[in-house]
Amino acid sequence: MQGLVSLVKVSLIVCVRSIACWGSLILIPVVALAQDSGPKGYGALEPAILRAANEHVNATNPFVHAFWQEQKPIPAAVPLQAQPVPKGDAPKGVPIPVGSSKSIFDYEKPSEDAVGAADPLGSTYIPVDSIVYPMVLRLYSMGYLNTAFINMRPYTRRSLLHMLNATHDAIMADGNEEAEGILASLQTYLSAELPALGKARGTVYGIDTVYTRFMGIHGQTLRDSYHLGQTVANDYGRPYQPGFNNITGFSTTSEMGMFSLYVRGEYQHSPSGSGYSQALTSQLSALDGVPYSGYNLRQATIPTGPIAATNTFALQEATLSAHIWGHEISGGKSDAWEGPAAGGAMSWSNNAQNIYSFRINRVDPLHIPFLSDLVGPFRYDFFVGSLKGHTDPNSPWIHSEEFSFAPTPNVRIAFQRSIIWGGEGHEPVTIHSFLKSFFSLTDTAPDPALKTSRNDPGARYSDFNFSWRLPYLRHYVTLYTDSIAHDDVSPPSAPRRAAYRPGVYISQFPRLPKLDFRVEAVSTDTSTLRSLGGQFNYFEAIQVQGYTNKGFIMGDWIGREAKGGQAWLTYHLSPNEWIQIEYLNKKTPKDFIPGGTTQNEFSVDVVKRLRKNVELNAWLQYEGWKAPIYIPGNGLNKNATVAFQFTWFPVLQHRSMSNR
Fold first, then answer.
1. How far apart, in Å, are the Cα atoms of 492 and each of 130, 382, 497, 519, 612?
2. Residues in the chain where the model's pLDDT stays below 50
3. Is residue 400 within 8 Å of 383, Cβ to Cβ?
4. What pLDDT does residue 437 have?
5. What is residue 452's DSSP assignment?
6. pLDDT confidence of residue 49
7. What kind and span of H or E run contains 577?
8. What SS3 string covers 175-218?
9. Residue 4 phi/psi, 5° resolution?
């Protein structure tokens, strides 16, 4: 507890110092991008030095003028009625009235949004598994939402409101019916944030969602992200086994002034399972370098059998936040998805259960004089907390810092770093050990004794990602890559030692505006020989249970030393309804898992509104997998999963206040 209090005291200072620590990384050369021409395009980027020296840069450079000019606030319109996302074709979008106040930072210029960072009101985070994000990502890839950072999720309700406010005029001017429908659906989702005419927002409160999921699985599954693979991924590490599985839960939202509180809890049920044999557990434990004895006979990273049935109540998220100068400063459990991809995030995703953390998140873009004229607006996110499920050493801590900027409206670049340090039996969690890990910027030290000493900087994982809406195709195609490296300053400094998830997203097709397509490849099997045996990416010589929380990898579900990919073809029935087909493949080599592993999955997902406030999300998944170390022989093991999730969206209550 004393360590936590001390960390909280220095976190504000650390957040500011992190910008300086990552400053040198910004100097990595970036190829100049030729932008679209025409009234909605931008001229070629001028050299950075000339742009900084130009006294009239905003007037002479069409790109900077379009991206940085403070526009007049959008006039208030008749507010929408508070209701969930509507069924079927949504109404046309209307401007969003938002309150504003003078910021303490006079230089803050939220791009294309005159009120974003100056908004003093707090709001809750939108969970990363919300239906909101597929709509946001599609709208961004259609060439809108220029203030959105798709590599830094979740968004808060009001930060999303600011994004919609900034992009409203462009959508309405283009007359893109798909974009207008998404805009209207998102506006309606945020209707409780809209004040009555002449009123401030006031208090927002109530039940946000009530949901239940019925899932049946026939056939043997995989539930081991650290070794063999997962049948169900990116699901907060929820329990599942062959048979009938259920989750039933609710979420609540409370917002008043600068403060907000979000709580999501659920009952979880899964039947008992056979699990791994003692012999297999011992073999996998030896691969990890964990002594298989005593308290290590049961490890969260190895599903040793027999597995008891689960019937428990889990607090998925619980976050108390204060909004201060464009930041959400919070404590508790909250989501994170730090990457531009949809199938996984190399540094942080919702594959594992959320951790309890202290967090400082710049939720609206920040403009810094001169610097932002060179590289655009900034966002950053910092959190620190403890990990669970580790026994060797026990209960280490982790801190994560992400720093992202937008050099053009179509490009996002981010640097991120996560460090696992401390733990009982290795080194204490103190201010000294925290600062030692936070300010360690060199590559792996040549002295092996350092790793076992109190001066160990920890298990360091550095991430680099970018996204680019392609020139002349920025209303259609987004190219992106996410990458992570272990014990290197950044993936660009050691590309052969990095893991990658590249992807392409086509948000619409000519003459087929309701169809989109996304494909992603992923590999943690690097070209360097150091990755042999699964002891590199997502692994660490000291924290041998690796980059996990409660047994699940916190980053990409692909796991250690594996290759694979995913593809999605989606037909949109309406802005918030669709039919999606997905294919997934994963292979783990024999030098890591004896005999190797292979997974192939085919799934069909349907999202449909049964009522305007009741949603059905149903999917059917077939999986075929081979893992001779688990089930001997070359036979194909098969399973089928059928799931139905019903979600009710009650109307949030709000009490407006006089706007004097």
1. 32, 22, 10, 23, 47
2. 1-114
3. yes
4. 84
5. T
6. 28
7. strand 577-588
8. CCHHHHHHHHHHHHHCHHHCCCCCEEEEEEEEEEEEEEEEEEEE
9. -65, -45
- What would you report as the CA-atom Rg of the chain, rounded to the nearest whole angstrom? 24
Q: Which of 530, 480, 525, 464 is nearest to 499 (CA)?
A: 525
Q: CA-CA distance, 129 to 606, in Å (whole number)?
A: 15
Q: What is the pTM assigned to this prediction?
A: 0.83
| Rounded Cα gap, residues 592 and 46, in angstroms | 48
> Which residue do the tokens 């999917």 mark?
619
DSSP symbols for 520-539: EEEE---SSGGGGGG-STT-
Q: How do beta strands 378-386 and 397-408 pair?
A: antiparallel
Q: How far is CA 146 from CA 72, 98, 152, 200, 443, in A?
A: 17, 18, 14, 26, 35
How far, in Å, CA of 599 to CA of 535, rounded?
21
CA 163, CA 155: separation in Å to the nearest integer? 10
The count of C-alpha atoms lying within 13 angstroms of the C-alpha of 352, restricted to the half-sphere facing its C-beta, is: 28
**Separation CA 90–CA 85 (nearest Å):** 8
235, 190, 80, 197: CA torsion to nearest 10: 170
Cα three-residue angle 213-190-649, rounded to 5 degrees: 25
**Do residues 562 and 586 touch, judged by C-beta distance below 8 A?**
yes
Residues shown for the chain? 660
Residues 606, 617: contact at Cβ < 8 Å?
yes
Amino acid at 611: R
What is the rounded distance in angstroms from the CA atom of residue 34 to the CA atom of residue 643?
46
The one-character DSSP state at 174 is: H
Residues with Cβ within 8 Å of 328's Cβ and at least 6 positions away in sequence, in order, are 122, 125, 156, 321, 322, 359, 360, 361, 363
Distance from C-alpha of 455 to C-alpha of 450, rounded to nearest angstrom: 6
The SS3 of residue 641 is: strand
To the nearest 10°, the Cα dihedral for 535, 539, 543, 545? -100
First-to-final CA distance of the chain: 43
DSSP 600-640: EEEEEEEEEEEETTEEEEEEEEEEEEE-TTTS-SSPPEEEE
Rounded to whole angstroms, the Cα distance separating 69 from 373 reads: 12
The DSSP H or E segment spanning 318 is strand 310-324
Residue given tokens 């979600």 in the structure block: 647
- Pair 592, 530: CB distance under 8 Å: no
Helices (H) and strands (E) counted in the chain, each on its own, are 11, 23
Residues 35-44: contacts with CB under 8 Å, at least 24 apart: 35/63, 35/408, 35/410, 35/471, 36/471, 36/472, 36/474, 40/170, 42/66, 42/67, 42/408, 42/409
Pairing of strands 411-421, 397-408: antiparallel
Which tokens sit at 525? Answer: 């099997």
Structure-token pair, residue 600: 């192939």
SS3 293: coil
How far apart (Å, rounded) are the C-alpha atoms in residues 578 and 262?
28
